[in-house]
């Protein structure tokens, strides 16, 4: 009787899952009924709290995921450490070959993974697929890097001596990722970490566990086929307690955290208290500045994408727009026409430009910000409401507002609101706009639209933007993988992806070698008894 009832419950769960969702999960080998194991350390398990993955478009429960118990987390950390002691001995070019195979496996599932990102996170399909492509691209980058992770030879002042700067694998890297990029941020870290010879333990956002499970299945399959312990890329789903345990663990050499400034401050202090390494990717309160000489046919669509893309839920989303007084009216008129053309709806449907906010809590933050704007006398040019015909999902109207004051000390300007709200101010001189750009606590991305080389020079120079990303005639959103990605000030100073970011994943040593018959001291010190 119990077996019959269990079979009935499984069938009922399958039927409750929409065909749309079932097809996406099935394409990636994810169960469409029952509970899913959310812990991987070479074996799939999970007997902790059950977390629900909820589709932000429809409100349906996509899956119930079994998270890690404290004991399972402890074991996962141990097995990740053990896997590291083996993997660090694998030659770097061989690690690169494994990364190449991971790249091929991801590329083969790019469309399916992109659809899952859209289903679980809410971004439109082209952005979901683009996010997976970013993981593919960083794998390509890391494959080449695996043969180029070089140290340096430094000239010694002492005869018969040479100095080497030698990189070695660092240890265990923990990746705590956010909901808005449930695949790419892990990809940045995993690719560089594997190339460096480290093991990685991933704790994804508790609201996007399915993306993490699907990616881990792909990665672990490649590792195991190559005789590499699966725990080189471990996964632990869970909530705040799991994150705290990982951050506090002395078995973790480097913590990469993506999330809010508030939590990032806690993470940074915790890791620093045990003298660990940390990469922080925190708030972005990004501004675009449009000069009167700008090509508006380029600037306006880019601002539109920056503010509305991913429903304003990118860390690089455009949240502030500073317009020169001579072109302000024209830019706002063009922008409002584009906003009026937005097609909201199911992110998996072709033609949709605006998906939902990720959660009900995000909707509350949006409406709280709108209420504050209205209460402070701001002029709402467009938006500010919920889409009434899309009541089952977390759909809100992209909003353009002109606050009463451009004072960056005001809460409206200095606080990042993770929603499609664009605040506008009008300036007379570039210096004024740069002052506003730099006047907020965050310092991630910034953009200047101009055709004047003098403006360009000032913008990227010492008296220009103080952000980690300083663009010219390119929007704030949509960075490529080749350069280091990250921000300054309260964004956390972390750098990931390209450039010299890989050096953070290494243990560096200065090695002085004496190949002479003498043992002179540096700086000419004479210490002979």
From TrEMBL:
Residues 49-508 form the Aldehyde dehydrogenase domain. It holds the Pfam family Aldedh. The active site is at residue 281. PROSITE patterns: ALDEHYDE_DEHYDR_GLU (PS00687). CDD domains: ALDH_F7_AASADH (cd07130). Keywords: NAD, Oxidoreductase. GO terms for molecular function: aldehyde dehydrogenase (NAD+) activity. It is an enzyme of class 1 (oxidoreductase). SUPFAM superfamilies: ALDH-like. Transmembrane segments: none annotated. Its EC number is 1.2.1.3. Homotetramer. Belongs to the aldehyde dehydrogenase family. PANTHER family: ALPHA-AMINOADIPIC SEMIALDEHYDE DEHYDROGENASE (PTHR43521:SF1). This is aldehyde dehydrogenase (NAD(+)).
């Amino acid at each position: 009787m119990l077996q019959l009832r269990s079979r009935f419950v499984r069938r009922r769960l399958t039927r409750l899952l929409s065909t749309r969702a079932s097809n996406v999960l099935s394409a990636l080998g994810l169960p469409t009924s029952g509970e899913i194991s959310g812990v991987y350390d070479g074996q799939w398990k999970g007997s902790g709290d059950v977390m629900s993955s909820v589709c932000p478009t429809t409100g349906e429960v996509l899956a119930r995921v079994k998270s890690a118990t404290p004991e399972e987390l402890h074991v996962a950390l141990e097995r990740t450490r053990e896997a590291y002691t083996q993997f660090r001995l694998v030659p770097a070019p061989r690690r690169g070959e494994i990364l190449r195979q991971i790249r091929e496996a991801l590329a083969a599932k790019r469309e399916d993974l992109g659809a899952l990102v859209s289903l679980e996170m809410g971004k439109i399909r082209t952005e979901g697929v683009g996010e997976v492509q970013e993981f593919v691209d960083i794998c390509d980058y890391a494959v080449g890097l695996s043969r180029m992770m070089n140290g340096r030879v430094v000239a010694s002042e002492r005869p018969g001596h040479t100095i080497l700067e030698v990189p070695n694998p660092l240890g265990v890297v923990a990746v705590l990722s956010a909901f808005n990029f449930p695949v790419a941020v892990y990809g940045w870290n995993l690719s560089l970490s594997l190339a460096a010879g480290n093991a990685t333990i991933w704790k994804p956002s508790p609201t996007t566990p399915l993306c993490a499970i699907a990616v881990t299945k792909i990665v672990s399959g490649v590792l195991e086929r190559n005789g590499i312990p699966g725990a080189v890329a471990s996964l632990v789903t869970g909530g705040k307690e799991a994150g705290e345990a990982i951050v506090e663990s002395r078995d973790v050499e480097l913590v990469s955290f993506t999330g809010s400034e508030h939590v990032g401050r806690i993470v940074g202090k915790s890791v620093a208290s045990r003298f660990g390494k940390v990469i922080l990717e925190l708030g972005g309160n990004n501004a675009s500045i449009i000069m009167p000489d700008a090509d508006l046919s380029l600037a306006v669509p880019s601002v539109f994408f920056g503010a509305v893309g991913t429903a304003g839920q990118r860390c690089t989303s455009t949240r502030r727009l500073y317009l020169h007084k001579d072109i302000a009216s024209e830019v706002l008129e063009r922008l409002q026409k584009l906003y009026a053309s937005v097609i909201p709806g199911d992110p998996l449907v072709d033609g949709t430009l605006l998906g939902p906010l990720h959660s009900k809590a995000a909707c509350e933050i949006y409406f709280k910000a709108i209420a504050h704007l209205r209460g402070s006398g701001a002029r709402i040019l467009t938006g500010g409401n919920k889409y009434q015909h899309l009541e089952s999902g977390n759909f809100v109207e992209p909003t353009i507002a002109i606050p009463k004051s451009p004072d960056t000390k005001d809460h409206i300007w200095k606080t990042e609101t993770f929603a499609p709200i664009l605040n506008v101010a009008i300036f007379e001189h570039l210096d004024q706009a740069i002052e506003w750009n730099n006047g907020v606590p965050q310092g991630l991305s910034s953009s200047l639209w101009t055709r004047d080389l003098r403006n360009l020079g000032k913008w990227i120079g010492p008296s220009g933007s103080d952000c980690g990303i300083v663009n010219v005639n390119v929007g704030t959103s949509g960075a490529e993988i080749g350069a280091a990605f990250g921000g300054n000030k309260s964004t956390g100073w972390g750098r990931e992806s390209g450039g010299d970011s890989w050096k953070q994943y290494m243990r560096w040593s200065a090695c002085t070698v004496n190949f002479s018959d003498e043992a002179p001291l540096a700086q000419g010190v004479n210490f002979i008894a």
